[in-house]
Each structure stands twice: as C-alpha cells, then as structure tokens.
Amino acid sequence: MAITTAMCTSFKSELLQGIHNFHNGSGGGTTTTTGTGNTFKIALYTSSATMSASTTAYATTNEVSGTGYTAAGNTLTNVDPTTSGTTALTDFADSTWSSSSITARGALIYNSSTTAGSANRAVAILDFGADKTSTSGDFTIQFPAADASNAIIRIA
Fold first, then answer.
1. How many CB atoms lie within 10 A of CB 139?
2. Nearest residue to 73 via CA among 103, 49, 28, 40
C-alpha cells in the first residue's frame, strides 16, 4: 500500500472540460458560468490506503476513523483563483480537526459538488511522508502560501 503525492490525472482532464470551479464559495457553478464555485473537501487516510495520480474519486476504503473525525473529511475554504506572472493558482485555508484522536498518512482533496453528473471527483493526493497523529488535540493540514511557487494548485 502506498500514498503518492500527485495532481490526479482525471482532474487535469476535467479542468479542460470545465468541471471544477474554484471560485470562493459553495454550491453551483456550471460549465458555462463562474457561479459561486464548487465545494471542495479534504479526507484523511491511513497508511493502508493506495492513492496516486490514478485516483479518480473519494472513497471510504482506508479512510481515517477516530474521535473528532467525520467520514468524508472537512470542507475546505477556497482561495479565489488568481495569477502571478504567467502562473495561475488557487489554494485553501488551513483545515483543522479539533480535539481529535486520529492517525493519518495522507489526504485526498476532492470536489464534493455534483458537476457534469458526478460528485466526489479527485483533485490531489497528499502524502505526509509518515504517519501523523493527534491525541485529544488538533490535527491540522497547513496549506502552503498562495503564490506562484507554493500554492497547492498551480498551472505554470
């Protein structure tokens, strides 16, 4: 079993189809209008999970369970897409599971909105490099700076 940090291949194709809308907000958005953006979530996974660029959707197999964690993970707060030089980028605010007792090896960022007939489409896989644990404390995913060199999603 392995988790490999990657931008999901299906996500790259779906971007070109107009399926994902990262405008800050939740709910709507269509393939022809900006709308209010899709809802993106982050789910945590154990070291038994197998996820890579070929992951296409959120699944519950080997998802973390424990105090303070709810299946399907946390809803993310989008940073509106922008550009810096010739790079387009978007990011998310940090996400915390408060007062939790969980162990995770990686995470999946996914679009939980139903667009083009499907929900829970995979966006990116994060490998933490080792198990990370919280014991009756906060488990926080810290996203990098929202700039052209560091944003979690960037197109150069």
1. 24
2. 40
